[in-house]
Amino acid sequence: MHIKKQRLLTPGPTPLLPSALHAMMGSDIHHRTEDFRNLYKQVLADLKAVLGTANEVLVLVSSGSGGLEAATQNFFSPGDEVLVCSAGKFGERWVEIMKAWGMKATVLTAPYGDAVSPQAVEQALAQNPSIKGVFVQASETSTGTQHDVKAMGAAVKKTNAIFVVDAITGIGTMPLDIDGWGLDIVVGGSQKAFMIPPGLAFLSISPKAWALADSAKSPRFYFDLKKERKNAQSGESAWTPNTALLLALAEALKYIKALGMDKLVENAQLLARATREAVEALGLQVFSSSPGSSVTAVRPPAGMDSGVIIKEFRNRFNAIITNGQGSMKGQIFRFAHLGFFDFHDLFAVIAELEIILAAHGHPVRFGSGVAAVQNVYADVALPKETLAVS
Ligand SMILES: *Cc1c(COP(=O)(O)O)cnc(C)c1O
């Protein structure tokens, strides 16, 4: 017998920051009080600070998809022409949202594992000047692929269209210069790099986007961003907020501010790089041709269903990792890096992967994947830490 602690290693929900988890116990407060208004104002100000934007930031009580829907219904009207970049399950979600709100979407599709090119966006915008919005995932979580939102933003900036970025797993895993790159609406979610449970969505909204909101005719009631904006100015939310999650978020933001957003991004990038090197050392392939740092999607050995690896992680080590989604199910398995992950987690995950592969007849020299992670650590993390203390 041996103990198997449960470990949540998925790209959302992600491992929780202990101080944020503990803060949730203070949720016996009322939301129309001075105490709450101080908390809410602090959260909105800190969100702005960690996102590094001068744009207005709002919080909604919903999972990330509610933020995506709000970013659609508040700025557009039925029949509006829009451009959607779709490179996986979440790109397909944008397409479904456009359909639900009666918008006319031109879809630029990249095969799973590839990214839509900024040149394709620029061309599509040049061909159709009536496009009012461009939609993309900064990080397509389903395939572990990153989009070049900087170059896309430069193309959108030159037009009247607004750039709407699902950065739900992009925030905290890649540099995002929201104001400099013209990312008009950026959507985030609590259960990703923010290290708290699911249930909050965030949106940053540029003046260019607010101007478009004035003529938007899609119906709205609960997700009315103008109403939220008005209430936020006095430190309140339009409806009863999720007090527990806001307390958690306040703690998480304190942590991220102390660490530095750039360091949080660097952490994810380092873990992603070490993961890629480890799986390659084990003779496996990274799935994406444009891999990001939120999650690394890996192809299983030829002839093996990735579901077997996921099940083995759960049964042998009580570790929860994720399969591919939709048609990618069985084709890939995914290791997350966003938020509260560290080298300690990764050493264990790769050691466990080696055991699982060996148990299924894949030739493995124990320690070869782990050594790849150690080399990245020694290469990058160690010298930096030495510098920091000297
Ligand atoms: C997690 C995620 C979402 C939001 O999904 P919810 O289940 O609604 O929180 C949206 N886009 C991407 C890229 C995601 O990773």
Describe this structure in words.
The chain has 390 residues and is an alpha/beta fold. The protein has two domains: 7-13 and 260-389, Aspartate Aminotransferase, domain 1; 18-259, 3-Layer(aba) Sandwich (Aspartate Aminotransferase, domain 2). The longest helix is centred in the last third of the chain and has 22 residues, at 368-389. The protein contains 13 helices and 15 strands. It is 44% helix and 15% strand. Helix 5 (118-127) runs parallel beside helix 6, helix 11 crosses helix 12 and helix 12 (343-359) packs antiparallel against helix 13 (368-389). The structure holds pyridoxal-5'-phosphate. The site of pyridoxal-5'-phosphate has 12 residues, from helix 3. Pyridoxal-5'-phosphate (PLP) is lined by residues 12, 63-65, 90, 137, 141, 166, 168-169, 189, 198.
**Share of β-strand residues:** 15-25%
Task: Please give the domain count.
Answer: 2
The main sheet comes to: 7 strands, mixed
The SSE order reads EHHEHEHEHEEEHEEEHHHHEEHEEEHH
Q: Give the helix tally.
A: 13
CATH homologous superfamily label of the largest domain:
Type I PLP-dependent aspartate aminotransferase-like (Major domain)
Bound molecules: pyridoxal-5'-phosphate
What is the percent of helical residues? 40-55%
Structural class by sheet pairing and helices: alpha/beta
Shape label: globular
- CA(first)-CA(last) distance: 45 Å
Tell me the CATH architecture of the largest domain.
3-Layer(aba) Sandwich
Rounded mean pLDDT score: 96
Q: Which regions contain 5 or more consecutive residues with pLDDT less than 50? A: none
What Rg, in angstroms, do the CA atoms define? 21 Å
CATH topology of the largest domain: Aspartate Aminotransferase, domain 2
Main β-sheet, spatial strand arrangement = 2-10-9-8-5-3-4
